[in-house]
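Worked problem 6 (solution included).
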Amino acid sequence: MADSWVGASAKQIARAVRRGDTSATAVVADHLDHIGVADPIVNAFRVVRAFEAAAEAEIVDDQPDLGSLPLAGVPIAVKENTQVTGVPTWHGSAAACEPVADADHEVVRRLRGAGAVVVGTTRMPEMGIFATTDDDTAITRNPWRTDRTPGGSSGGSAAAVASGMVPIAHGNDGLGSIRIPAACCGLAGIKPGRGVVPSKLGATDWFGLAEQGILATTVADAAAGFAALAGRAPEPLEQPGRLRVAVSLRSPVLGVRADAGARSALASTARVLVGLGHDAVRADPVYPVAFGFQGVATWFAAAYRDAEAAGVDVSALQPRNRRHIALGRRVWRRGWIRDADRAAWRERSGRWFADGRYDVMITPALAGPPPAAVQWSARSWAANVLTCIRYAPYAGPWNFAGFPAVVVPAGTRPDGLPAGVQLVGPPGSELLLLAVAGQLEQAAPWRRHAPGWPRLSTSSRVG
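Solution. The predicted structure is:
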């Protein structure tokens, strides 16, 4: 095929569109062509807005302030639980689907305001409950290995980015739903801290746990997407000074341990940080003994409260989710979900960072490899719960604390799948975490797309 913008970063695309080296129309057309070839393999998208996106790209090209738009002409995908005008809000399920939206969610409005073009909405598991992405219509697949899941619940967004169908994608994260797919697919993913980006997800934002964020192939793209979501002007990431970094291997869930691939990724990242001049200190947060129970109970109750508030016909949901919601009803009505418990963990976490004078903590992103890409939606509730807890225990505590967290790639596992680490910081440390992530990217560059992707382009227009 002729030269294509497929595979270029969001930063490269936006710069070229602002300068007039290309047009949003051409960039979006390239990516829509690639989606047509790649998505039948990966199943990342629920809805592709081909005609609407082409028309909106023309509008971007005609913007009088085109030269100041930070995401000018950048194709972006939006997770299907977030309102996009003219598209049903699917929530991963025909049973939970909301009618065609007559207005954009605030974060979508901000992305469009920055010049991005929404090319479609991406698949997620039903109601975002589990960390794998499939339903009775399709199994979303990991571009690194199509027999593996891209994770969840922002699995479609991660698969779209890792295969080059979009340079960046929107996701949201209630117990790791950005960071888990980022780690599964070898991407950078950011979950901002509480209150930094408007959430407005379901009845309670999953009791305040859920945040809107970005998946990208580069830290610069993740930072640009985060700035748009937060309603901020983009700013360069400053090189941090010498930091005290806590290196933690301890799992928050008793009985779940990181495997050799995850341990190796953490150790190699710690060595890179020391080589960059930081102090790396082995230190573990003191997770409450009851954290596993409290986290799982909140997971149940959040699903119940969302279904109740939305008026979902629970009997029409997948069997695994019917049981999950029934348990959620039980724990909610017994009063086991308490704001005070989350506030206590937030206070304890802040004190741990302050008392240890830790600027940043790094942990494994996952405890093991992404599970198989199969119809988890048809498997038992117990199989789903145990699989998710065993492979992805590290993300959830930082939703409870409301602290920002970033996942970045950290080489590959012995099985050839991507490895990743999680960076966590106290409230307000989003830019610091991104700056450290940028240092890691520069010192230990990662493959931006899954091997063999994007397949459509034989060359690039980017010089």
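Discussion: The two ends are 18 Å apart (CA to CA).
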